[in-house]
Amino acid sequence: MNLQNHQTFVLIGIPAMQEKNSWVAFPLFVLYALTLLGNIMILYVIKTDQSLHEPMYFFLCMLACSDLALCMSTMPTMLGVYWFDSGEIPFNACISQMFFIHALQAIESGILVAMAFDRLIAIRDPLRYKSLLPNSVIAKIGIAILSRGSCVCFPFPFLIKRLPFCRSNVLSHSYCLHQDAMKLACADTRVNIIYGLIIVMCTVMLDVLIILVSYILILKTVLSIASRKECLKALNTCVAHISAILIFYIPMIGISVAHRYGKHLSPIVHMLMANIFVAVPPLLNPIVYSVKTQQIRQRICNILQLKKRYSGTSG
Fold it and tell me: What is the band of 4 on the pLDDT scale with cuts at 50, 70, 90?
């Protein structure tokens, strides 16, 4: 079979147990709805509350937008697979989805770096925090992050499209990934592998290194603060960001390691890791920031109380 006589890839749900896909469908739909609700709530709260119009919250808006885009580019396909057993995806649609997933991952990694810089400036130079990060600078940082993510992943669709596919067209996940599709090619994929490694080194590894250096400087600054109370207060402002870093990078590293070295693992493990990779970070980020950021938590509580009062009055 070659590319001329198959123009589709086939996505799968639970490996070798497709009849049990419906078990995953409803929890996945609930997760999808909660992810949309959580991130839209974060955006609404920050937009409507003037006191939250600060650099930290603008970067949080970028993170929420990135999570929403990732959710909307993967979840409909995943729900189609699990709920309707609709696994076929056109070749061009698959490589488009592949581009968006990888680009959005690179964008989110860049946003986490920007948020690390934001925390560094806020703790090291709090008096000049807003003047060092005016709206114009934040907008330029956002454009730079978006441009980097789009540019580094732009070659992926072309690298896949040039390959002949004469083997099975069945992918191992419920969405399209570059490393997954690449395995089905019946040609030399060294260019794809090398480019993929270059992208990992230039984005993820570099970003992790910058974040690590930022937190070493933050820790150095915090430890120099005489008051233990002030020291803990400064560290507390970083808890949500540290949680977001762990939520994002651990699944990403896990699925990369599984693809390269986990051939002996059960297909169920690969399926779970793949679903966690795209579904869990967009769900947990708004929860973490709502719980750990007092201003956002209070604003959400106020909104819920107003709705409760309104429903009570109308009742």
Answer: very low
Q: What is the pLDDT of residues 256-305, one digit of tens each?
A: 777 677 667 777 777 788 888 888 999 999 999 988 888 888 888 887 77
- Strand segments (E) across 38-182: 88-90
* Token output for 153: 């992943």
Our CA angle for 114, 288, 246, nearest 5°, is 60
Q: Which fold has domain 3-314?
A: Rhopdopsin 7-helix transmembrane proteins (1.20.1070)
pLDDT at 105: 93
Supply the DSSP string of 194-208, one letter for each residue.
HHHHHHHIIIIIHHH
Q: Across the strands, what pairs with 88?
A: 10
Cα gap 38→43, rounded to integer Å: 9
Which residues, including other chains, have CB under 8 Å from residue 53's CB and lie 6 or more apart? Answer: 46
Tell me the per-residue pLDDT of 6-41, one tens digit each, with 9 for 90 and over: 578 888 877 666 667 778 788 889 999 999 999 999
Phi, psi for 18 (deg, rounded to 5): -60, -25
Q: How confident is the model at residue 168 (pLDDT cuts 50, 70, 90)?
A: confident
**309 backbone dihedrals φ, ψ, rounded to 5°:** -65, -40
Q: Positive or negative CA dihedral for 42, 200, 173, 95?
A: positive
Structure tokens at 145: 């992050």
Cα separation, 266 vs 263, whole angstroms: 8
Coil, helix or strand at residue 10:
strand
Of 154, 250, 225, the C-alpha closest to 195 is 154
Those residues with Cβ within 8 angstroms of residue 11's Cβ, 6 or more apart along the chain or in another chain: 77, 81, 87, 88, 89, 171, 173, 174, 175, 176
Smallest CA-to-CA distance from 110 within 238, 199, 240 is with 199
How far, in Å, CA of 281 to CA of 69, rounded?
12
Stated pTM of the model: 0.90
Domain layout of the chain by residue ranges? 3-314
**Residue type for 43, please?**
L
Length of the chain: 315
